[in-house]
Design brief:
The structure holds 3 protein chains of 3 kinds. Chain A is mainly α. In chain A, α2 (about 30-55) runs antiparallel to α3 (about 60-90). Chain A has helices spanning about 5-30, 30-55, 60-90. Chain A contains 3 helices and no strands. Chain B has helices at about 5-35, 50-60, 75-90, 115-125, 125-135, 140-170, 175-185, 190-210, 220-225, 235-260, 270-280, 285-315, 325-355, and strands at about 95-100, 105-110. In chain B, strands 1-2 form a two-stranded antiparallel ribbon. In chain B, a hairpin with a 2-residue loop joins β1 and β2. In chain B, α6 (about 140-170) runs parallel beside α13. Chain B is globular and about 60 Å long. Chain C is built from 7 helices and no strands. The chains are: A mainly alpha, B mainly alpha, C mainly alpha. The interface between A and C is large, with 74 and 88 residues.
Chain lengths: ~100, ~350, ~180
C-alpha cells in the first residue's frame, strides 16, 4: 500500500485520517470545549485535502477556498467559545452528558 | 538542503541568537549601570567581559528543580518552545544580498519564500504558547496569573503590529522581505516615507509589549508577581527563557531593521557597487561576493544592535505601565492609529499607482 | 511521480500523533496545546507543498489565534483533569466509532484505488501550482474577482461573529430598579 505512493495521495489520506480522528472526538468526547477542538481538527483535515489537490492545477482556487474555510473556522470558533463561556456562566458545567435540556 | 548556503545561513541564524545573549548580558548590566551612575560587573575578566561565561557556568551547575505537581511534559517544553520560535522566525530574514557561488547567485537567507513577512508574523505569534505552557505547568497561581496577563498583552499588541504591517505592505507592494530591502535600495518617495513613520512607531512600541520588556513587563513585575510565568524555573531552564527573551528581541529588531531601515542595505552603496569595490581591490569575483555579503551582514547587525541598545535604554528609563493602561494603549491608541495610517496609505498608494505623487 | 520525502512522512506522523492526543488526553490544556501542534504541523506541510501564503495564514490564524483562544478558554474555565473523558452512552459511542471507521476506511480505499488507477496519468504530469502561480497576488486577485461575493459575505460573517461574541461575553446584567 505504501510503495509508489505519491505525495499527493499521502496528503489526501492524511487529511482524511485527521478528519476522522476529529469526527471521533466530536462524537465521543464529554467536554464541550474539547469537542470544539476536534471540530477544528475536522476543518483542518478538509483544508489539507484542498491544499494538496490544488498543486495539480494552474490556478489558485483551492487556496482561495482554503482561506475561506480558515476564516469561517475562526469566526465559528470564536462564537462557539463564547457560547461555551455563557453556558458555563449560567450552569457551571460543560459536560455534554449533563447538558440535555433539548432531549426528551 | 543541497544548497551550499544552507549551512552558512543556519550558522548565521544560530550564531546571531546564541551570540546575542552574552553580548546583551554585558550591555544590559554594564549599560544599565552606566545609566544609573554605578559600575556594574567588572570583576570577571577585563572590564567584566567574561561575566556571561561566569553566569552561564553558574546556571549550568544550579540544581534543576521542578515544583511538585508540575506537568512533566509541559514544564520542560515551555522554555524549549520559547527558544525554538525565534530561531524559526529569523529564518525568513534576509541577511545579505546574493552571493556568487559556482556561477549561481544564491540569496543569503534561510527561507526564501515570497511571503516572508507574513511567515515572520505568524511564527512570532506562537511565542504566546511558551508563556502559557510555562504559567500553567508550574502549579503556581502567581505563575498562571502572570502567564495569562502576559499572553493577553502579547496577542493584543500582535493586532496592532498586524494592522501597521498592512500600511508597510501597501507601500512596498510585496510581502517578500528581500523585495522590501530591494525597494529600500531603489528609494522611496516622500509620501511613502510619510506613510511609514507611524507604523514604525507603532511596531516599535508593540515590540516592547511583544517581548515583555519594560515598560510593558508587568507580567514579570517583581513587586507583584515575583517573576511571573518563569517563577518556578531555575538553572538552565531559566537560562533558556532568558535566551528566548533576547532572541525574541533580536527577531523584533531584525523585523524593524528590515521593514523600516532597509535591512542589509547601506545607503549609497548597492550590491553591485560594493562588489565592484572588492573586485577593484584585487579579489576574484567569488571572494568579492563573499566580502560584499559580509559587509551587508555587518550593516544589518549594526541596525539590529541599535534596536537592541534602545531596548536596554528604554528598560532603564521608563517606569512600568499598569495593566489597564497597557491594554488601553494597545487597543485604544495603537490600533486606531494603525488603522488611520492604513487609510492614509490606501490614498497615497492609489495616487502613486495613478502616477501622481510619484 | 514524486514520492513523499522523509520529512513529509515525519510531519504526517507527528500530526496524527498530536490529533490522537487531542482526542485521548485527559487534560484539557494538553488537548489544546496538542491541537496547536497539529495545526502548526499542518501549516508546515502546506509550506512544504509550496503553498506558502496558505501555510503562513494557517500558522498565523489557526495556530496563532484560534488555538490561543482555546487555551485561554480552557484556563479560564479551569477544567479539572477528567477521569472519564468519553461520553457515557456506550451503544452510541460504538455506533459513532463504527460509522467513522467505515466512512474513513471506505474513502481511504477509494483514494488508494483512484490514485493507482485513473488518476495515475493525471498526477504523472507533476505539480503545477508553485511559487510563481500561487503567490499572494494571485490569491488576492481571485478573492476580489471570482470569489468577491464569498469574500464580502465572509466579511459580514466575521462582523456578525464579533458582535455575537461581544454580546455573549458581556453577560446578563440585572437592571437596577430606580430608587424612589
Amino acid at each position: 500500500m505504501f510503495e509508489g505512493m505519491s505525495s499527493i495521495e499521502m496528503h489526501v489520506s492524511l487529511g482524511l485520517i485527521l478528519f476522522s480522528i476529529g469526527a471521533l472526538g466530536v462524537f465521543l468526547k464529554r467536554s464541550t470545549l474539547v469537542a470544539l477542538m476536534c471540530l477544528e481538527l475536522m476543518l483542518n483535515g478538509v483544508n489539507l485535502v484542498l491544499v494538496s489537490f490544488n498543486r495539480f492545477y494552474g490556478n489558485v482556487h483551492g487556496y482561495n477556498l482554503t482561506l475561506f474555510v480558515i476564516l469561517i473556522a475562526a469566526a465559528e470558533a470564536a462564537v462557539g467559545l463564547s457560547l461555551v463561556v455563557a453556558i458555563f456562566r449560567s450552569r457551571g458545567i460543560t459536560d455534554l452528558d449533563d447538558l440535555r435540556e433539548l432531549q426528551r | 538542503m543541497t544548497e551550499p548556503l544552507f549551512f552558512v545561513s543556519i550558522a548565521i541564524v544560530a550564531g546571531l541568537i546564541l551570540a546575542m545573549a552574552p553580548v546583551m548580558l554585558i550591555v544590559e548590566r554594564r549599560g544599565s549601570a552606566f545609566m544609573q551612575r554605578r559600575v556594574g560587573p567588572n570583576r570577571v575578566g577585563p572590564l567584566g567581559l567574561m561575566q556571561p561565561m561566569a553566569d552561564a557556568l553558574k546556571l549550568i551547575f544550579k540544581e534543576d528543580l521542578a515544583p511538585e505537581g508540575s506537568h512533566p511534559v509541559l514544564f520542560p517544553a515551555a522554555p524549549a518552545i520559547g527558544v525554538v520560535v525565534p530561531f524559526l522566525a529569523l529564518a525568513a530574514v534576509p541577511f545579505a544580498g546574493t552571493v556568487l557561488i559556482d556561477g549561481m547567485e544564491l540569496p543569503v537567507q534561510l527561507l526564501s519564500i515570497n511571503v516572508g513577512l507574513l511567515y515572520l508574523l505568524a511564527i512570532t505569534s506562537l511565542h504566546v504558547f511558551s508563556v502559557l505552557a510555562a504559567g500553567y505547568s508550574s502549579n503556581n497561581k502567581f505563575s498562571l496569573l502572570g502567564a495569562l496577563r502576559s499572553s493577553s498583552q502579547m496577542i493584543s499588541y500582535e493586532i496592532a503590529i498586524g494592522v501597521s504591517v498592512v500600511s508597510v505592505v501597501l507601500v512596498h507592494g510585496t510581502l517578500d522581505l528581500r523585495e522590501i530591502v530591494v525597494r529600500w535600495e531603489r528609494g522611496l518617495s516622500w509620501a511613502e516615507h510619510l506613510c511609514l513613520v507611524l507604523p514604525f512607531l507603532v511596531i516599535w512600541i508593540s515590540s516592547f509589549a511583544e517581548t515583555n520588556r519594560l515598560p510593558f513587563d508587568l507580567p514579570e513585575g517583581e513587586s507583584e508577581l515575583v517573576a511571573g510565568y518563569h517563577t518556578e524555573y531555575s538553572g538552565l531552564k531559566w537560562a533558556m527563557f532568558f535566551l528566548g527573551e533576547y532572541a525574541a528581541m533580536t527577531v523584533a529588531s531584525a523585523l524593524m531593521a528590515t521593514l523600516f531601515l532597509g535591512g542589509y542595505w547601506i545607503p549609497g552603496l548597492t550590491q553591485d557597487s560594493l562588489r565592484a569595490l572588492f573586485v577593484d581591490m584585487g579579489y576574484g569575483a567569488d571572494v568579492a561576493s563573499y566580502l560584499q555579503a559580509a559587509v551587508q551582514l555587518g550593516a544589518l547587525l549594526a541596525k539590529i544592535g541599535f534596536f537592541m541598545f534602545v531596548f536596554v535604554w528604554v528598560r532603564w528609563t521608563l517606569p512600568r505601565f499598569r495593566y489597564d493602561q497597557l491594554m488601553d494603549l494597545g487597543w485604544r491608541v495603537l490600533l486606531p492609529v494603525g488603522v488611520a495610517n492604513a487609510a492614509m496609505t490606501f490614498v497615497v498608494t492609489y495616487f502613486r499607482n495613478q502616477g501622481i505623487l510619484s | 511521480m514524486n514520492e513523499p520525502t522523509i520529512i513529509q512522512w515525519i510531519l504526517a506522523l507527528v500530526s496524527i500523533a498530536a490529533a490522537l492526543g487531542v482526542v485521548f488526553s485527559s487534560n484539557a490544556v494538553m488537548s489544546a496545546l496538542l491541537l496547536m501542534t497539529t495545526l502548526f504541523v499542518t501549516g508546515a506541510m502546506y509550506i512544504g507543498l509550496g503553498a506558502y501564503f496558505v501555510g503562513a495564514a494557517q500558522i498565523l490564524i489557526y495556530a496563532g489565534a484560534i488555538a490561543v483562544l482555546f487555551v485561554f478558554m480552557v484556563m479560564i474555565l479551569d477544567l479539572k483533569n477528567e477521569q472519564r473523558i468519553f461520553r457515557d452512552n456506550a451503544p452510541r459511542a460504538a455506533l459513532g466509532g463504527l460509522l467513522v471507521l467505515v466512512f474513513a476506511g471506505s474513502i481511504l480505499i477509494s483514494v488508494n484505488v483512484a490514485f493507482r488507477g485513473f488518476l495515475r496519468d493525471h498526477i504523472k504530469l507533476g505539480p503545477v501550482a508553485a511559487e510563481a502561480v500561487a503567490g499572494p497576488r494571485e490569491i488576492s486577485e481571485g478573492l476580489i474577482s471570482q470569489f468577491m461575493v464569498s469574500f464580502q459575505v465572509s466579511n459580514l460573517l466575521l462582523l456578525g461573529a464579533v458582535m455575537g461574541c461581544v454580546v455573549l461575553a458581556r453577560g446578563h446584567k440585572k437592571k437596577e430598579l430606580p430608587r424612589v
